[in-house]
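Weekly sync notes, structure subgroup
Attendees: PM, AL, DS (notes)

Item 1: joint prediction request from the bench team. They want all two components modeled as one assembly rather than separately. Inputs as received:
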Amino acid sequence: MRGIWRKVALRPRVMGAAVSAGAVLFYASQAWSAEPSKIDSGDTAWMLTSAALVLMMTAPGLALFYGGLVRSKNVLNLLMQSFIMVALISIQWVLWGYSLAFGPDHAHVLGGLDWLGLRGVGLEPNADYAATIPHQAFMIYQAMFAIITPALITGAFAERMKFSAFLIFSLLWATLVYDPLAHMVWGTGGLLGKVWGALDFAGGTVVHISSGMSALVCAFVIGRRLGYGSEPMPPHNLPFVLAGAALLWFGWFGFNAGSALAASGLAVSAFVATNTATAAAALSWMFAEWIGRGKPTVLGAASGAVAGLVAITPASGFVAPMPALAIGAVAGVLCYGACNLKTVLGWYDDALDVVGVHGVGGTWGAVATGLWASTTVNSAVTTQGLLISGETSLVLTQIVAVLVTYGLAIVGTLVCLGIAGVLTGGVRVDEDAEFAGLDLSQHSESAYVLAATGAGGYEPVTGAAAER
Amino acid sequence: MKKVEAIIKPFKLDEVKESLSAIGIQGLTVSEVKGFGRQKGHTELYRGAEYVVDFLPKVKLEIIVREEQVVEVVETIEKAAKTGRIGDGKIFVLPIDEIIRIRTGERGGDAI
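Output from the run, pasted for the record:
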């Protein structure tokens, strides 16, 4: 068991959780007495709750956020992409995703196939990851992260991607980009986290930078929407957007505070940092737009909150409340600027601003972790941030981790889009289908049925009603 | 016989309708329409993307009246629909050649 103690000491996420739970003595005594790890019911309850909270972020949180931002003819398609992602990646994860991401290390890049079909992933804790909860609790918590990440990308190719191509792309992307990246950042022996010492508490690189950069590639490869830049494409339902953003804020406590992997002091610290940064970002985006454009918009406040959540994600378990406030305040203004810049430049049509919010906010958060990470918040921090200690090494490591993530996301996304394109005869729908909207062309459904039925409106073609 | 057509602000509809009832007008047709005149549209702002919406929603009333009622009807609408601000709308008076009540086959003034 001393071996475990040493391994744990090298792992910031797990170590932080253990220490702030006051578990140092527990581990030490374990090491001497060589008793098996004990499941803590409080930790387990919190991790199951957190897993459910993170699930809620994708559906309905992200589904509503994205669904409201598109035109009414595409809302079902956007809702469906988030909803079906829960199903798709849940299966991918238990079959091979979890094993590739968290299984025994291969070359510091990928987990092995040892845990295929969850073989050997049982109810005994895995001390490498979380010593006080059943291994399956850790597994299902991580599944929710694997689900939301490809769902975030759907905002970039919204309103013009074939549903079949979307399914293939998402499955490939989860396997070829997400799983290796999660392993490199969080897995045993992972290159970025364990070997180089980059800090990513809840997924700044793994979730947000990866999805943000992949979104940029998707937007360039798939091209602009028909009429982009010449005809207006306002969001069709801002109440959906605000409800979605509020659900994301709520669910994100599971995402960040849950990443402590225990119901511990560290979880509380991450919870406070998350809420503080989000509040600051909602205000800073709102005021930036108010000053710049004359009105405080609802969409601006909602987008600012999401930008703050994104930015604090990697830092949430490493920074004190005041740095969290600064991270959020900067994120709101920075992401607001990035979204404006996209519109001004018009180089690519990232329909729902995945790049501007997740790519830019995630990158800022990763760098900011290198500025403010502090041993007082999390004793797993071995090198403190630049503004705490004056040392540059952590911030440089963070930047290297960001660049590696950019590289993997860009190359991986090109490969996934290429394969999806070949298998579906081009990932993009034809012009007629795009004009009619994806709800009709991909799903044969309408979100809002306002027309009269019968008499040239709706006529049944099957079933008893059609016989009459 | 004349047709009085009035384009008015939607929130003035009730007031205009009640004023017309008060002077004995027994029927009118209302449509929701869009358009623009001197009053410009509004702007909308979504994450820095600004849109101008040119067409504003208005309500169009159509009332068929006898010659001798025209002045009174026009004045009534003018008074009830007025806010004094830009965008109050316009009133048109047009000649009518014939009126037929479909149910009874009545023609002309009897069919009003």
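Discussion: Chain A has one domain: 2-443.
Action: AL to compare against the crosslinking data before next sync.
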